TrEMBL record:
GO biological process, one term: glutamine biosynthetic process
Domain GS beta-grasp stretches: 63-156
Record organism: Anaerocolumna chitinilytica
PROSITE patterns recorded: GLNA_ATP (PS00181), GS_BETA_GRASP (PS51986), GS_CATALYTIC (PS51987)
Coiled-coil boundaries: 626-653
Superkingdom as given in the UniProt entry: Bacteria
A GO molecular-function descriptor: glutamine synthetase activity
Keywords: Coiled coil
PANTHER family, sorted: GLUTAMINE SYNTHETASE (PTHR42974), TYPE-3 GLUTAMINE SYNTHETASE (PTHR42974:SF1)
Protein family: Belongs to the glutamine synthetase family.
Protein name (Swiss-Prot/TrEMBL): Glutamine synthetase
SMART domains: Gln-synt_C (SM01230)
Length: 701
């Protein structure tokens, strides 16, 4: 990187510094009020902002602009328009109005709507989200001004992931401010959600990727025997970076920094060919936009390096899958982190109240939180002894667990465990400050110092959904708390009693042990905690009476919007498994079975040739291999026929019934087909086997 990092950071972003430089002071002040306080934007202000944004973009080489939005596909969408307008003399001028900045009109007919819109009803609107800065993106199409927007239908329902997130951010801000005012903090005007999503991913060689139809069509390997070495030597985690990977990471960082993305940490993850990038925290909607950009950037940069970035939650069986740890906290506009326990958390009543609110929210709505982290890919991870279990629980750590125990058992907390010092036993090494609490990597929802780490989210998922749910359920509890405390005659006594009551009633959700153990599954069942093992089981939580009430109360999602999203989830699951099953059928028919027949024919020819040349020769090895190969081939062919039958049957079903059928019938049939094919891979000559193996994909980068 020739330029200094400080010189390139945010150069492609129409951020506050750029706006302050290019906008008149009154316009800049008005825009800041809109961003900070949610005040309505004056159309005249929008016109001036649009013109300044256009001039800035054109100076940087932009020819087009786009309203960049996040439909229910989980990825981003955009339609590009040039700045050109014709003049009467046959030339052009470059224009961009406030109206064009504020509102766009993409065709909404082909995006998932869950029945909100008929196919023939095409109109939808994108609305400028001025709280997330516009940015420039350069690619083969040139330089494009990207304007982050929300996306709604002609009738007003949200068709995207951003709109509910923004609504939920308003909800938790309003309710948190209510509680804080009861504590006497009248100076606090708003509360924002601070989010930092850690992104895990795999890198593989592009030339090998292109030889695997399963990776191309589904993002994961549907077949593949285990290589001689996997991750058991624990030598990849935090290991030194390979040159090719390091070059990729360097360019990803530079591209992210130009976009104002606070890319901070990079390292090798547990599985071979697996890596992670983590940013510094941002406000929830900006963090969501940035994470979408990170994923897009990784894919583009990987392609430039002859690599492919795999974001699927489980691209390879038998090795760790990829997640996206969603670190979440709430911070006042005065800079106070409401989840910071301080040095003596047992005395920090305000912290304990907000902690209690999160604990109650998670316990009361564990099904919703589980659903928010679910997709078809994540079904391969959750509860699979490599990631958080499918059961929602909260890890607090020794310090807070002790404080909670004191409150529940005695009604009063009089002490907090302290971290102290750690002496390593080498005089030349410094004495280290020791945290009061260890970490627990098996917990799906862990308190980590001054935030909660929601570890269940899938690597390919938008973080908008999990944060929308988390914001809404916590807002609901804070609303209950504010209502109760506002009526209290003695506020201090009421707060103390509310904390004790809440922790006593919801302590079942707190678990600091090994979340991977079978004993915990049994214990969780005794506690009455839900164990939703798949997305299909979790989806009905979205349309329960409880969910409709909570999301509707805070105008985050209406009943109609919730039902539409449930329909989208069922449909997306069915489509995902259907594509995977059809890909397996094609690969088995066109690749694996012909390759095995070729190998078996070679064995038969070898046996016949040897017997003809030397009748007394021992051909038992070839005969044994031929017999084993033929048996597995017959097994694979029978499994293939069965899979074809159930896929045809699935096509006749719809909605939830179809999704359940894919989960309970089609998916198991896929596993039955995979088993003999994977066994054959270990027998058939490598020169004959038609696709790169796990060893080729994971270790040859």
């Amino acid at each position: 990187m020739a330029e200094k990092l400080t010189d390139i950071f945010g150069v492609d972003v129409f951020n506050e510094a750029t706006m302050a430089e290019r906008l008149p002071k009154k316009v800049f002040a008005a825009l800041k009020k809109t961003i900070k306080n949610g005040e309505e934007l004056d159309p005249e202000v929008a016109d001036i902002v649009a013109n300044a944004m256009k001039d800035w973009a054109i100076e940087r080489g932009a020819t087009h602009y786009t309203h960049w939005f996040q439909p229910m596909t989980g990825i981003t969408a955009e339609k590009h328009d040039s700045f050109i307008s014709p003049t009467s003399d046959g030339k052009i001028i470059l224009e961009f109005s406030g109206k064009e900045l504020i509102k766009g009109e993409p065709d909404a007919s082909s995006f998932p709507s869950g029945g909100l819109r008929a196919t023939f009803e095409a109109r939808g609107y994108t609305a400028w989200d001025c709280t997330s800065p516009a940015f420039l993106r350069e690619d083969a199409a040139g330089v494009t001004l990207c304007i982050p927007t929300a996306f709604c239908s002609y009738t007003g329902e949200a068709l995207d992931k951003k709109t509910p997130l923004l609504r939920s951010m308003e909800a938790i801000s309003d309710q948190a401010v209510r509680v804080l005012k009861l504590f006497g903090h009248d100076e606090v005007k708003s509360v924002s959600c601070s989010v930092g999503p850690e992104q895990e991913y795999f890198l593989i060689d592009k030339s090998k990727y292109l030889k695997r139809e399963d990776l191309i069509f589904t993002g994961r390997t549907l077949f593949g025997a285990q290589p001689p070495k996997g991750q058991e030597m624990e030598d990849h985690y935090f290991g030194s970076l390979k040159e090719r990977v390091a070059a990729f990471m360097k360019e990803v960082n530079e591209e992210c920094w130009k976009l104002g993305i606070l890319a901070k940490t990079q390292h090798n993850e547990v599985a071979p060919a697996q890596h992670e990038l983590a940013p510094i925290y941002s406000t929830a909607n900006i963090a969501t936009d940035h994470n979408q950009l990170v994923m897009e950037t990784m894919k583009k940069v990987a392609n430039r390096h002859g690599l492919v970035c795999l974001l699927h939650e489980k691209p390879f069986a038998g090795v760790n899958g990829s997640g996206k740890h969603d670190n979440w906290s709430i911070v006042t506009d005065t800079g106070k982190n409401l989840l910071d326990p301080g040095k003596t958390p047992h005395e920090n009543i305000q912290f304990l109240l907000f902690l209690s609110a999160v604990i109650k929210a998670v316990d009361d709505n564990a099904d919703l939180l589980r659903l928010s982290a679910s997709n078809a890919g994540n079904d391969h991870r959750l509860g699979a002894n490599e990631a958080p279990p499918a059961i929602i629980s909260i890890f607090l750590g020794e310090q807070l667990e002790d404080v909670v125990k004191q409150l529940v058992e005695t009604g009063d907390a009089k002490s907090s465990k302290q971290g102290g010092k750690l002496n390593i036993g080498v005089h030349t090494l410094p004495e280290l400050k020791k945290d009061a609490t260890d970490r627990n990597r098996t917990s799906p929802f862990a308190f980590t110092g001054n935030k909660f780490e929601f570890r269940m989210v899938g690597s390919s998922m938008s973080i908008a959904g999990p944060n929308t749910t988390l914001n809404t359920i916590v807002a609901d509890v804070l609303s209950q708390f504010a209502d109760e405390l506002a009526e209290a005659k003695d506020f201090d006594v009421a707060v103390h009693d509310l904390i004790k009551k809440t922790l006593t009633e919801h302590q079942r959700i707190i678990f600091n042990g090994n979340g991977y153990s079978d004993a915990w599954v049994e214990e969780a069942e005794r506690r009455g905690l839900p164990n939703l093992k798949s997305l299909v089981e979790a989806i009905p939580a979205m349309t329960s009476e409880k969910s409709i009430k909570i999301f509707g109360k805070y105008n985050v999602l209406s009943e109609v919007e919730l039902h539409s999203r449930a329909e989208i989830e069922f449909e997306a699951y069915s489509k995902t498994i259907n594509i995977e099953a059809k890909t397996m059928i094609e690969m088995a028919n066109k690749l694996f079975i012909p390759a095995v027949i070729k190998y078996a024919s070679g064995l038969a020819s070898s046996i016949n040739s040897i017997k003809a040349a030397v009748p007394e020769a021992d051909v038992s090895v070839q005969a044994g291999l031929l017999k084993e190969t033929s048996a597995l081939l017959a097994e694979a062919n029978a499994a293939l026929a069965s899979l074809q039958t159930v896929v045809t049957e699935a096509a006749e079903k719809e909605g939830q019934e179809q999704a359940v059928f894919f989960k309970k019938v089609v998916f198991p049939a896929m596993e039955v087909l995979r088993k003999p094919i994977d066994e054959l891979e270990l027998i058939v000559d490598k020169d004959i086997w038609p696709v790169p193996t796990y060893g080729d994909l994971l270790f040859e980068i």
